[in-house]
Amino acid sequence: MGHPFGTIVQIGDILVSEDVIVEYFSCDYAVCKGKCCIEGDCGAPLEESELDEIERNYEVFSPLMSEKGREAVDAKGFFEIDIEGDIVTPVVPATQECAYTHFDAEGNCLCAIEKRFFEGKCPWRKPQSCWLYPIRITRLTGGGQALNLHRWDICRDAFEKGKREKVRVYQFLKGPLTALYGEEFYEALCAAAEHVLASVEKD
């Protein structure tokens, strides 16, 4: 199915992999309970520009964090560097959960930053790597970006739910893609998706 190496859609200086268009995805929080925030080898990727947002709003959302999460920030700072040299959110050493998580009374895992955002108390929603998941961004030489699909076993149910509901990755992420890259970008992506999907279905 599809092309041997996959189609790459270019919109301005943004490259979008075929998987982002073709694959189905719809977060199934009722099943996973926010596992992506509490599992993994390191924290979520951060942009340098986001460090100021975290520090600026920390006093607003930190009361929602667990005590261990606040201790991790006290010990490590607002970010840490992973084994690949990338800037990521700090994690709680014993559990590897993101320090910025919030657990409600039922034990559901939420983002403390995003919860304050929805309450109207924080102007910044959350790191773009979290908002855009399962897309991962790769910075290209020359200033461009590549948007690729990241596959993680704990999101298996989300891929299955997306297939049941006929929701593609780029459709599920309309909100963050539009917010981060603009309406014109998303409209161009939708137009390109029609051609890619027609080609895939033809094959």
Concise overview:
The protein has helices at residues 18-22, 29-32, 48-61, 67-76, 112-118, 128-131, 156-165, 169-172, 174-181, 183-202, and strands spanning 8-11, 14-17, 80-81, 87-88, 101-103, 109-111, 135-139, 145-149. It is α+β, with helices and mostly antiparallel strands and 203 residues long.
Describe the structure.
- The chain has 203 residues and is α+β, with helices and mostly antiparallel strands.
- It has two domains: 1-25 and 134-203, no CATH class; 33-124, no CATH class.
- The protein is 42% helix and 14% strand.
- It contains ten helices and eight strands.
- The protein has helices spanning 18-22, 29-32, 48-61, 67-76, 112-118, 128-131, 156-165, 169-172, 174-181, 183-202, and strands at 8-11, 14-17, 80-81, 87-88, 101-103, 109-111, 135-139, 145-149.
- It has a four-stranded mixed β-sheet with strand order 1-2-8-7. Strands 3-4 form a two-stranded antiparallel ribbon.
- Helix 3 packs across helix 5 and helix 9 (174-181) crosses helix 10 (183-202).
